[in-house]
Amino acid sequence: MNDRRDAALQYAHENRPRFLDELKEFVRIPSVSTDPGAKGEMQHAAEWVAEQMHGLGMEKVKIYPTAGHPVVYGELLKAGADKPTALIYGHYDVQPAEPLELWHSPAFEPTQRGDNLYGRGASDMKGQVVISLKAVESLVRNGGLPINVKFIIEGEEEVGSPSLGDFIAAHKDLLACDFAINPDTGMMGADIPTITYGLRGLAYFELRVSGPDHDLHSGQFGGVVHNPAQVLCELIAGMHDEQGHITLPGYYDSVRPLDAEEREELGRLPTDEAFYLKQTGAPALDGEAGYTPVERVGARPTLEVNGLLSGFTGEGSKTVLPARAMAKISMRLVPDQDPEEVHQQLLRYLEEKSPGTIRWELIKMAGGPASITDRHLPAVQSLEKSLEAVWGKPASFRREGGSVPVVAQMADILGVDSVLTGFGLPDDNLHAPNEKIHVPTFYNGIDAFIHFLSNLAE
Amino acid sequence: MNDRRDAALQYAHENRPRFLDELKEFVRIPSVSTDPGAKGEMQHAAEWVAEQMHGLGMEKVKIYPTAGHPVVYGELLKAGADKPTALIYGHYDVQPAEPLELWHSPAFEPTQRGDNLYGRGASDMKGQVVISLKAVESLVRNGGLPINVKFIIEGEEEVGSPSLGDFIAAHKDLLACDFAINPDTGMMGADIPTITYGLRGLAYFELRVSGPDHDLHSGQFGGVVHNPAQVLCELIAGMHDEQGHITLPGYYDSVRPLDAEEREELGRLPTDEAFYLKQTGAPALDGEAGYTPVERVGARPTLEVNGLLSGFTGEGSKTVLPARAMAKISMRLVPDQDPEEVHQQLLRYLEEKSPGTIRWELIKMAGGPASITDRHLPAVQSLEKSLEAVWGKPASFRREGGSVPVVAQMADILGVDSVLTGFGLPDDNLHAPNEKIHVPTFYNGIDAFIHFLSNLAE
Asked: Which of A268, A356, B66, B207 is deepest in the core (most CB within 10 A)?
C-alpha cells in the first residue's frame, strides 16, 4: 500500500512542471460566473475539466446543464465495495477580475514571479481542483486509486451556487458517498498545515435608494430634497454601533455563543493581530468589541459594504444631486443564523429607519447558512495524519471566515459530512487583484492529497 | 428709438426658425469641459462663437488661449461714448451628458418634442448665449446697437471657471465696462419673469478613504478591519444633524442671516412646497429645519453628496471588502461664507471624526463665493421694464441656489455689478439627462433682450 503511495509521490514530483502548465491552461479560461457575457468561457472551462476526467479513465463523465452554468461529474469506483467512496467537490468558476488596472500582470494570463503564479482563480479554486485531479492521476498511474472517488465540479460557486442544490437533490443516487471532500478552504501560512472545521454562511443584498425622479442640479434644488446618497450613507452608518455590533433587530439572537474551550483553542492559533495587520495592510484593526481577531473572523457574524455607487464618479466635478444611490451589502453568518432570517432583519431595519423622503428597494442575492464539521470524524483524522506527513508538524484546527454553501447542502441533501481542506494562503489575494498561488504549497498540496487518499483506504 | 427696437423685434420674429436652427448647430458640439478628451470639441465650440461674432460685424474678435479652455472675446462699440458699455458674459461649455442611457434622445442630437428642444446645453447655457447674440443681431440689422457691447464667452464654467479670473485680471482694459450682463440664471416659470439678485457660491471636494492596502475577501477578513466604504458612510452621515443642519465646526458662523423684510419678500414667490415637489418628483421635501423651501434653496448653505464609488458595483454579487471608497461632496455657499473657510472646516471635521483605522485624503476642486446684486441699480431697473414689456406683468425678484463664480470675479477685478438674467425654466433638467429649452420662452428671451439693450440706452 505504501509502495503505491510512494510511487505516486515520486511520479508527482517528476511531473511538477507539467502539472503547473496544466494549471496555467485552466487559469487562462476567463470563467467569470457573474458575467452574463461569459457563457462560452464557462462552457470552455467545464469542457477542460471533463477532458481531465476522461484522461484519468473516469467513468460517467458528463457536463450536466443547469438553470445556470453546467456541473461536471465523473467517477472512478474501482477500489472495491469494501473501500470508502469520497465525493470530491470543486468549482471551475472564478470571481470577476475588476479593477483590472490594479493587476501587475493580466488576470487571465498566468504569470510566475518568484515562488508565485499570478492569475484570477489560481488559488480560488482552480489550483485546488488541479491539486485533487493530479493527486488522483499520480495514484491512477501507479497502481490505481486506493478508494472510490466521485467528482462534482460546479460553475456557480462565486455567485452563491444557485443551481447546485437542485442538482444534488436530482442526482442523490449518482452522488451517494460516505463523505465529501471540499478543498475550497485554505491554510493559515505556508508552514502551518490547517484543517478548517467551521465556515461562515453568507447573505448578500443590493440596497437601492431613490428620491427625486431624475438627477437634479445641486444649486437649483440643493436644500429642499433629501439626497439619496446621503440617506444611503445614513442607513449604512446606522447598521453598526460604536462597539462594532450590528444593529439589525434580533441579529444576534440565533448566534451560537463561543464556549470557553473553543475560545482557548482558537487563542492558540498563530493568526494574531500582527498577522492580520500584515495580511491586510490596514493602519489598525477594527471590529466587534469583546472578541479577538480570530474569533471575529471565524466565529462572529459581520455586515460588510461590498460596493457603493451614486451620482457622478468620473474625473473632475459635476454638481449633480443624484436621483439614486446603490449599495451592495453582505453578511457573513455563523451557526445558527439563517440567511432568510437576516434578510427579514434587514428589511425590518430599513422599514424602521428609512425616512419618508426617499424610496428604497432591497434585492436578495446569494445566500447560504454557516456550517461546522465534527473534528473527530475518521476522514478528518486521515487528513490530519496526511498534513503531518508532508509538513512534519501537527495540523492547526480553525474556523474560517469564508462561506462554502455547498457544505450545508451536502449535509442537508446527501446526509454526509464534508472534510474541509485546501492549500490557499492568506496572502493569495482571493477576490482581489493579483490573486496568486504559492507554487511550493501547490506541490505540497498534491503530496498531501496523495497521502490523504491513501490514508482513507486504511 | 422705439422704431429701431420695433423693427428689431419684427426681424427677430421673422427669423425665429433660423435662430432655432443655429442653436441646434451649437448644441450639436459636445463641448464637455470636464472631459480631458474633448479638447477638439471645445475649440470647435469656441470657433462657432467667434464665427457668430464675425457675422455681427464685431471687432477685436479673438479666441484667447488659457491654461484650460479658451475664452472668446468680441466687441461692438459704435453707439457712442455717451452710451453705456455692457459686458455680456456667457459660457460655451456644458456638463457631461452621463448617464447616457436615461436620455430619451441623444444628448448631442438636439431633438424637438412639443414646445421643447432637448439636448445637453440647450438651456445651460448655449440657449442663453444664442438669445443674447440674436438680440444683438436683430438690432444690428435694423439701425445698429443702441449701446456699446463687449462679449466674453468662456469654456470652463461647468468646471468652476479656473482660468477666468486670471484672464479678466490680465485684460482689465479690454473688458472695461459700466456693468456686466450675466444671462446664466433662470426664470421660476414660463409665465413668471424673474430677476435674480442673489447667487450661492460653491466649494467642491473629493474625499477618499482607504484602509487595507488591497481589496480583501470579505469572508477571510470581514470582522478585523474597518470597511472604508462603511467609514465613508459614517463620515458623510455625521455631516448633517437630525434637523438638517450641517455639523462642520463653525459652518454657520459667517452666514449672513435673513432679515424679516427679505423673508417676507421671498415668501411671496410662487415657488412653494408644491412647486418643488412637482419639479423634483421626490416623495417628500426635506432640508434645514426653520426655513421655507425657497429660503433653503436661495439663502441657506447646503452640503450635498454628488457621487459615491467603492468596491464592486457591477451586476451580481462579489464578496469584496473594498480597499478604498470615494465621495464627491460639494457645498452651496451664501454670503459671507468663503470657499477656503469651508475647506478648512471640512478638514477640521475629518480630523476630528475620522477613526485611526483608515486613511483619508481631501482634494479641493472648484470653488467660488456667493454674491448679491443691488436690485436698485439702473441696469436692473431697465431689465425689470423689459421683462414687463414682454410678459405683461411685473418681474419677481429672487435669490437663486446655483453658483455663477464669475459674478464675484467681475466685482472683485473689474469693480462692476452684474445684472443677472436668463430664460431657463425650473424643469429644464440642468446638469441632468434630458436637458431642454422651452422654445416659446427662448423666443420671448430674445424679445426681452432686445427691449433690454434698447432700454439701457435711455
From this structure: B207
Instruction: Give the minimum alpha-carbon distance from A185 to chain B in angstroms, rounded to a whole number.
Output: 10
The ipTM is 0.79
- Which letter does DSSP use for residue B100 in this model? G
pLDDT band at A111 (very low <50, low <70, confident <90, very high): very high
pLDDT given for residue B458 in this prediction:
86
DSSP at B58: -
pLDDT above 70 for A1: no
N- to C-terminal Cα separation, chain B: 9
Query: Cell numbers 437542485 correspond to what residue?
Result: A166
Which residues on chain B are in Cβ contact (under 8 Å) with A371?
none
CATH of B203-255+301-366, one of 3.40.50.300, 3.30.70.360, 3.30.70.260, 3.60.15.10: 3.30.70.360
Residue extent(s) of CATH 3.30.70.360 domains in chain B: 203-255+301-366
Q: Which three cell numbers stand for residue A443?
A: 506541490
DSSP assignment of A277-309: HHHH--SS----TTS-HHHHHHTS-EEEEEEEE
- A-chain CB neighbours of B310 within 8 Å are 305, 307-308
For testing contact with chain A, the best of B205, B306, B310 (most A CBs within 10 A) = B306
A359-368 and A396-400 strand pairing: unpaired
Q: pLDDT category, B47, cuts 50, 70, 90?
A: very high
Sheet of B359-368: strand order equals A359-368, A201-210, A324-333, A302-311, B302-311, B324-333, B201-210, B359-368
Query: Could you report the per-residue pLDDT of A268-307, keeping only the tens digit for each?
Result: 888 889 999 999 999 999 999 999 999 999 899 999 999 9
Whether CATH 2.40.30.20 fits A202-255+301-368: no
**Phi/psi at B370 (nearest 5 deg)?**
-75, 170
Looking at residue A2, its pLDDT comes to: 82
Read off the pLDDT band of B1 (50, 70, 90). low
**DSSP category for residue B305:** E
Count of CB atoms within 10 A of residue A283's CB? 18
pTM attached to this predicted model: 0.79
pLDDT band at B289 (very low <50, low <70, confident <90, very high): very high
B250-260 CB burial, b ≥16 within 10 A, e <16 = ebeebbeebee
Instruction: For residues B249 and B256, give the distance between their C-alpha atoms in angstroms, rounded to a whole number.
Output: 17
Nearest CA to A183 among A125, A108, A102?
A: A125
Q: Measured between beta carbons, which residues in chain B are less than 8 angstroms from residue A330?
A: 218, 317, 319
Q: Which three cell numbers stand for residue A383?
A: 487528513
Of B227, B237, B330, the CB nearest to A319: B330
Q: How confident is the model at residue B207, as a pLDDT?
A: 98
Tell me which amino acid residue A39 is.
K
pLDDT tier, A326 (very low <50, low <70, confident <90, very high otherwise):
very high
Pinpoint the residues of chain A covered by CATH 3.30.70.360.
202-255+301-368
Averaged pLDDT of chain A: 95
Is the pLDDT reported for residue A144 higher than 90? yes
**Partner residue opposite B281 with nearest CB, options A212, A238, A316:** A212
> Which residue ranges does chain A devote to CATH 3.40.630.10?
2-199+370-455
E strand or H helix that includes residue A367: strand A359-368
Q: How confident is the prediction for chain B on average, in pLDDT?
A: 95
DSSP strand pairing (A216-217 vs A320-321): antiparallel
Give tens-digit pLDDT for A376-422. 899 999 999 999 999 999 999 888 888 787 888 899 899 999 999 99
Q: Which residues contact B231 (CB under 8 A, 6 or more apart)?
A: B209, B211, B325, B354, B355, B357, B358
Cis peptide upstream of residue A257 (ω within 30 degrees of 0): no
Minimum distance, in Å, between the CA of residue B155 and any CA atom of chain A? 15
Beta-carbon contacts of residue A96 (< 8 Å; ≥ 6 apart):
A32, A34, A35, B312, B314, B318
